[in-house]
Design a protein that fits this description.
about 475 residues, alpha+beta, 2 domains, seven-stranded antiparallel beta sheet, six-stranded antiparallel beta sheet, 4 helices, elongated
Length: about 475
Amino acid sequence: MIRRETRDERRKSVILSTSEGSRNGFTLMELMVYMAILGIIVIVAGRAFSDSTKFRVRTQNILKATQVAENVATLFKSDVAQMGAKSSKEATVAGGNDTFSEIYADVYWNAGAGDYSSYFLAQTNGQDDLSFRRVRYGADGRYVAVEEVSWFVDANKVLKRSCRTIKGTADADACPGGDADAARANAVEIATDVDLFRVYPAQPGIVTGEDSQMFPPGGGNQFRLVSRVGDAKYAAVNTDGGGESVTVTGFASNYNSSTGEINEDEDKVWNEVYVVANTPGGGSWNSLCGSEGNNFQFVPEVEYEISFAITVQFAAAQQDPAQMFVPGKDHMAVGIRNADGANIGQRINSVPDFLFYPPSAAEANSAKRSVRFTVPETIEHACLAFTFSMFTPLTAAGKIEISELTLKKVPSSNYTFDESVANVAVADRKNVRAFRMKLRIDRSGETANVDIVIPTPSNGVAD
């Protein structure tokens, strides 16, 4: 017997079926929540990926800009350091000594107008424009040509370098001949995106009208030597007055001829002579040392030079010059001494004496000696003195002539940088001995900076 479902039973079945279906699906609200969460995840992930990409690109730009800036600095430094080179080895006869030819006039920028420097600084496209001259050498160290090199930034912020040969044998690839305009038209690209290119010449410590020579006074060449006496440790020597040269004789010897021994004890005898101006009138060594014009002030950050020529004469022409001086025992030195009151004549410990050997061959006589020094702190008053302590028996019979004596400030080492001054007066450019270069490369908003100082000791006249 087949049983039929009633109406109520069918209605109940539909209700149950609908209820079960709703438990297995999603409501509209749930779908909206899920979509919102998914959207947030996508946005966060996308931003993280974008930031990562930007950071990578930024890092690459920084690294690239830094690498380019450093490469430019290396090339610029190597280039500019050769500025003004003007001496070279020249060929001689077979087996002969090398000779050196100095001063190629074309290296000077404009000597006819009083500019004895080797550079010219201007501005192009709002950036600095540096040109300079130098000597190019061959593999054997001999002169080949005089070149003019330029560094400048064009209107597209591209740093370029040009080179032209103005005298001698041109290098067709690296530095051809031709005029300045042609050289610039064929300039080599060094770096792009150059936002700043500045070149500052060092301000010379010695400028026109300021005398670098401290002694003899007034740029003269005459002096006197006065022997130190009044102390058992110092024996008097003889000097022949004053002039462009002074001869010293009568040296005390620390050699005992009767015993054949030398005195190396604390009581050994010294000879010391003080350098004073060759002016009328006498006076003791200490009074002259303490008087104005014979003592000097020395300050830090300035380099000083003592220079002189020395000639040794002997009692007999056949004497071997080497017998008069024994290195390691005999003592010849030049230095500065305290010029103040009770301390007059004392050595200044912060500036040691400078030892020198006399010439041991006739052709070396009158060779110029030069010593340079700086002081760690200001020395208000100091004299210049030569000191001798001899141990050989021939010393007393010998003569030493000192000439061409000067004490001066050295322009090559005495400089500062002042970025408020664009250049140096024409007459003073020969004393520029360093340049400061500032470079900034801006690549897509990322910058790299270089700030370097390049010494140029050969710029200007021979030092």
